[in-house]
Write the structure tokens for this entry.
Amino acid sequence: MDSVTSKAHEIHFGDLAKAALQQYLAQNQYSKIFILVDENTNEHCLDFFSDIHGSSAETPIIIKAGEVYKTIETCVTVWNALSNMGGDRKSMLLNLGGGVVTDLGGFVASTFKRGIDFINIPTSLLAMVDASVGGKTGVDLGALKNQVGVINQPKMVLIFTELLVTLEPRQLKSGFAEMLKHGLIADRDYWNELISLNESDYHNHIQKSVEIKNNIVEKDPTEQNIRKKLNYGHTLGHAIESYYLEHPIKDTLLHGEAIAIGMILEGYLSHKLTGMSKIELDEIKKVFLSNYPKVNFTQEDIGIIIDLLKHDKKNSHGNINFVLLEQIGSAIVDIKVPVELFKEAFAYYKE
């Protein structure tokens, strides 16, 4: 795979990633090199990566695995570890993990000593095509997603598709939802390619998804306009994810599973408000329900999820702003949605 270049950094794949990392670390005399992992990547990915980076790194900093640990409390643990291990402003943090590690690690690096350099090495499909690219860092506030953070770019992103063998099929599917989103918001032909894939073909399309996201971020790095397109499915999807994350009885939904539901719901809103055809709406619903299990929402569930929308970080001046589709491959931002349409969207999903 060819490298993807942005104004802020480069995204390298495979052997090019290995060479780029070794050259970069040799050319930059960091006082200390730290590696952040979670329990899973410490067990399954660290040995692979240690053979690649070829430099002397400190003992890995290990955090607990899972979205529930993407918190400011975990940041404090990592900040203390960096301080206790002698980290200074000339230190480097290598974030080896999925979206929680790259989001949280990027935020930790951006704030420790008022900012140290970091590199993202995503180990999940979701992180490879989404979380590690674009410079968004941060943590959750309780069950509310990504409420605290900054936009700060890594020095580079290194993608090793070999690491995907460590994932369970459900985790691969979660990442695939973000790839489907890229087709929906930017490229009908890419959507058509993806919906004909089997799971063994995912890795062959990672570069295309990275290119789509990178092209959007390049034009709008601080999300003032078109970068908002990347939030398609995430307004309702994040509310659903938050609700299931904090519910004492219901099973937690993975990010991609919640966003898949959000894309169906926001597809319905697109049909009602921005002109997407019923044919394309039904196509979107069919694709996602063939890939992700259907969730049974009660009326109580729906009411609480709709109430959670007021916490969405994309809101402004009391308005809930949505990204909707004009058609598959074309998205439009900052659409305000009448509240009565939310329950209609859930009804369509449940049909």
